[in-house]
From TrEMBL:
<dbReference type="InterPro" id="IPR051942">
    <property type="entry name" value="DENN_domain_containing_2"/>
</dbReference>
<protein>
    <recommendedName>
        <fullName>UDENN domain-containing protein</fullName>
    </recommendedName>
</protein>
<dbReference type="Pfam" id="PF02141">
    <property type="entry name" value="DENN"/>
</dbReference>
<feature type="domain" description="UDENN">
    <location>
        <begin position="1"/>
        <end position="197"/>
    </location>
</feature>
<dbReference type="InterPro" id="IPR037516">
    <property type="entry name" value="Tripartite_DENN"/>
</dbReference>
<dbReference type="InterPro" id="IPR043153">
    <property type="entry name" value="DENN_C"/>
</dbReference>
<dbReference type="InterPro" id="IPR001194">
    <property type="entry name" value="cDENN_dom"/>
</dbReference>
Amino acid sequence: HGVRQYGYCSRFFHKRILNALCIVSPFDMIEIYEKILSTATELFLSYKENEAKTFLEEIYHHRLPNRGDTIHITTSPVGLYTLKCEYDRRKVLIDSITLLNLSTETIIKIFSSILYEQKLIFIGNELGPLTRLINTFVCLLYPFSWPHTFVPILPALMLDIVQAPTPYIIGILRSCESYLSGNDDFLSQDNSDILIV
């Protein structure tokens, strides 16, 4: 068994340069890490780079809250900082607004493909909405879970993964969509089990 890793990222322009703050963790706690990254990003954008680094270093050494818990951490840059982890993660991860933008037929087709353990490729223009859409469908599987390859945002340099023979749920940016139509290896294989959304 492989160990699943989760990546969280905040991208922002600071001093006219694109920056990224990234956290890689064995814990699937998007609500916690998004809050931490949001706070650090605000500090960077307020030209408080040293405070942002100190905040991240101090948070790093504290334990994370368990499901249903709230912890309070005192950090020098922001003072008292509260992290709350919902007991039922579906409250945080199911994005009903995203679902309302899809037709009933599309939702049923996606959900059926997931239950049949087919390959799914989600294509979107922006990282945030694409990630929320994919996480929403994976959460809707409850009480089941997706045991196969799960990559909400696949980097362009790793697009060959879509040729994997096993089931997967993968998200790619629309800028990478041409890979699917322009790759002879991908087009030559039987893709009848792949749903592209």
